[in-house]
Amino acid sequence: MDFNSNRDYNNNREFSRQKEELYSQSISAGKRKYFFDVKETRGGDKFIVIAESRKLFDNNTGNFYFEKNKMFLYKEDFDKFQRGLSNALHFIETGEIPEPVVSEQPEDNAPQGNSYPDVNVYDGIDFNI
Known about the structure:
Layout: H1 3-20, E1 21-29, E2 32-40, E3 46-58, E4 63-74, H2 78-94
């Protein structure tokens, strides 16, 4: 690929990326910044990308850097996600345990009953906001 076609390819990718983003909002919160972006698939389905960017200090280099984590939330999960978040906020505010959000049918790979994997998938994730 010569330089000009590589540049055209990158310009088309950037145009594509911009076209997909329909709405964006960022919220600064101390050393963290949250991004809420609404995008659209080629098929016209809208989805949300929630990202967190944290400013961290590298003791080895003496420089700051940003760590970014993303979560993709698809249309078919909006209602369940919203109810789950509302339940968590309700518990924080009142101490009352709300009714759990129940899925219509279990996922094929989801743990059933109390048979959770031995590995804690949340290791290393900072939930203190």
